[in-house]
Amino acid sequence: MSEPERAVSRRGVLAGAAAVGAVATLPAGVRRAAAQAKPTITYWNGLTGADGKVMDELIQQFTQETGIKIEQQRIPWADLYAKLQVSVPAGEGPDLALIHTIEVPHFANDGVLEAIAEATATGKGFRGDDYLPTTWQGGLYQGKRYSIPLDVPQHLLYMNVKVMRDAGLAGADGKPKVPGSKDELLAMARQMTKGDAFGFAIGTLNPGKYTWGFQNLLWQNGANVYTQDLKRSGLADPAAIEAAEFFGAIHAKEKVAPPANANCRDAFIAGKIGMWIAGSWNFTGLREAKVDFAVAPVPKIFKRAVVWSMPHQFTFPKPKAADAARREAAWAHV
């Protein structure tokens, strides 16, 4: 591929979001068929943040429309993956599991997930043309499909309106100015950095702070963690080194970013960070915290206007014994 697996263009992100929304409506025929059986299915996911509240609403609406009950377990992602690895071989896995795209290959290779025939996916109304290519391809492993995309979480640039206004970084309309380049970003960050307040931050806590944010910088500069043939590290390449130097400079040289152990989300809410690159899943939580903020696409810091994204994928863990009614109910929820 010419681009990293999870790097998508700004236009592509919007198209993907629209496509996901387009397939989210449950057909009337599926609703009627599902309502007749009315089984209860189990569903595990790691949506422990504000995005979990949205899933709760979707499940409630789904049950009202179909009569299918869902026993949902929300488990921190790392614990969820460990639990799947042990529970599924023991025959105690869920009917449906939500995982990240990067987890699909190893769970498929370990025999934790059931393969999905392309004819089955198409028959249920799921087609690659309705999704971003990289999002749809993320469900494939060794030529077989193991997952169906739910959404396309991505990084955004969050801007604290009060902090930016106080620093003189708002237009005549009161809206924050949006940096369009690395130089503009650094200049604006310097203008907001004072005392215990910082102008710019990437990520929240691990792994988002040091993995996902750095990947975004790599991809913008045409670099990657591995070479395209996956045979050697790409981190020694000049483009990767340039991205790493920028990542280090905002902390050590420019000193416009908070210390490594800072919780950037809490600092942003408290008005201690002006601009913050972080996941779209923070949006609801910030709104509930009543922070006056604005969002924009991640600035083009290097060569390419791409943004980090890691889709969630619906999967069907292998059951101890097949249950057609429960599988159909799980498909109906997907």
Keywords, please?
single chain, about 325 residues, alpha/beta, D-Maltodextrin-Binding Protein, domain 2, 4-stranded mixed sheet, 13 strands, about 40% helix
Verbal overview:
The two termini are 28 Å apart. The protein is 41% helix and 17% strand. Helix 2 (28-37) packs antiparallel against helix 14 (324-333). Strand 2 (40-45), helix 3 (50-66) and strand 3 form a beta-alpha-beta unit. It is an alpha/beta fold and 334 residues long. Residues 1-24 have low confidence and may be disordered. The strands form 4 sheets. The chain has a 5-stranded mixed β-sheet, sandwiched between helices. The chain has a 4-stranded mixed β-sheet with strand order 9-10-8-11, sandwiched between helices. The protein has helices at 10-23, 28-37, 50-66, 77-87, 104-109, 118-123, 133-137, 161-166, 182-192, 208-220, 238-252, 264-269, 282-288, 324-333, and strands spanning 7-9, 40-45, 69-74, 96-100, 140-141, 144-145, 148-151, 155-160, 198-202, 273-279, 293-296, 306-308, 312-315. The protein folds into 2 domains: 7-153 and 312-333, Periplasmic binding protein-like II (D-Maltodextrin-Binding Protein, domain 2, 3-Layer(aba) Sandwich), CATH 3.40.190; 155-308, D-Maltodextrin-Binding Protein, domain 2, CATH 3.40.190.10. The protein contains 14 helices and 13 strands.
